[in-house]
Amino acid sequence: MTDPVRVHLRVTGTTPMPALMALLESIEAAGFDGAGILDSQMLARDTFVILGQAAARTRRLTLFPAVTNPFTRHASVLASAIQTVEEMAPGRVKFVIGTGYTSASTIGRQPATLAEMRACIGAVKALLAGQTVDWNGTPGRLAYASGRRIPVLMAASGPKAIEVASEVADGVLLLVGFNRALVEWALDHLERGARRAGRRVEELEIIWAVRMGTAATTSEARRAARPTAVHWGIRWDGQWLERAGIRTPKLQVPDAVWKVYPDLSHAHDWEEAIAATSFVPDEVVAELCDALGLVGTPEYCAERIGEMAKLGARNLYLMPFETFALPESEIRAFRDVIFPQLRAAGLR
């Protein structure tokens, strides 16, 4: 049998705690392998509180912040928090850190620099290993470090960040899209960073972060995907279009896009965000969706996972489009259609 495809689901923490706990229990019951808890202090409830509660309410799920950052909490606080959660769920906790996109933008600051990422990852890894870290001349260690391994992964989407992740972290959460060209591009930069550090890519845990949304028809799914697709491909990262092999007409971004809070991809009012993207033709959105992730019927999404598994993408972190809605339809799609289809193909 080939290596199975492991599937983790994003939980945003934007609904009350009782609903979140019920959601996590349903994620485990549906057959998912793990859950990542959004860390964005102005949008969602506290990540580590949710992780602690999730550790007590689940038995099998791998749990991790998705993703935390090096500036809203000190590195020593981050190490303390994840070590505490790991005591409640030994062997099924990861630590995932990124530059802090909405954590930064919602409080009027810039995301962390790659130098800050290097420093924080190094400090957290050392503390979790029971080592002493120098804090401006004051040595300190985590008095209750368990010694059990907690993998430290770095989220990355740009070339420099991907290379830093493969140099200093135990693994990488890649948010680069989901087609052959993008996968090969990301793996090339992982190889470059690993080589500089005298490591091999095979030593790293690689998780592919995939935007996803299912519906009864492809057109419905693409309509729901509009805010994320346009944010990713048109507003935010022009270089991503070239890497994905997409050519688009010159588009003028209207003022309505800039007024969506906090941004298109995390909009509180999803219908408003969809309306704000009407300036992008349907055929362009279709191309963006195909490169972005899993957008379509459940059957189509299962086929796409199978195709990407052949390229080595066997560890997925699924990010449903809406930040302020529970991913109930996605859970049903995987439970009832996608997981059975993957099992039939020998991928579960």
Description of the structure:
By secondary structure, this protein is α/β, with parallel strands linked by helices. It has 2 domains: 6-215 and 297-344, Luciferase-like domain (TIM Barrel); 220-296, no CATH class. It has 14 helices and 11 strands. It has helices at residues 17-30, 47-57, 75-88, 101-105, 114-128, 159-168, 180-196, 218-236, 238-244, 255-259, 270-276, 282-292, 298-309, 328-344; strands at 6-11, 34-37, 62-65, 95-97, 133-135, 138-140, 152-156, 171-174, 205-214, 293-296, 315-320. Strands 1, 2, 3, 4, 7, 8, 9, 10 and 11 form a 9-stranded parallel beta sheet that branches. It has a two-stranded antiparallel ribbon with strand order 5-6. Strand 8 (171-174), helix 7 (180-196) and strand 9 (205-214) form a beta-alpha-beta unit. Helix 3 packs across helix 5 (114-128) and helix 8 crosses helix 12.
Q: Report the structural category.
A: alpha/beta
| CATH homologous superfamily caption of the largest domain | Luciferase-like domain
User: Uncertain spans, ≥5 residues at pLDDT below 50?
Assistant: none
Q: How many alpha or pi helices?
A: 14
Radius of gyration: 19 Å
Overall CATH class of the largest domain? Alpha Beta
**Name of the CATH architecture of the largest domain:** Alpha-Beta Barrel
User: How many strand units?
Assistant: 11
* Apparent shape: globular
Largest beta-sheet characterization? 9 strands, parallel
Assign a percent range to the helix content: 40-55%
Sketch the topology as an H/E string, one letter per element: EHEHEHEHHEEEHEHEHHHHHEHEH
CATH topology category name of the largest domain: TIM Barrel
How far is it from the N-terminal to the C-terminal residue, by CA?
10 Å
Count of spatially separate domains: 2
What's the overall average pLDDT, rounded? 95
Strand content: 5-15%
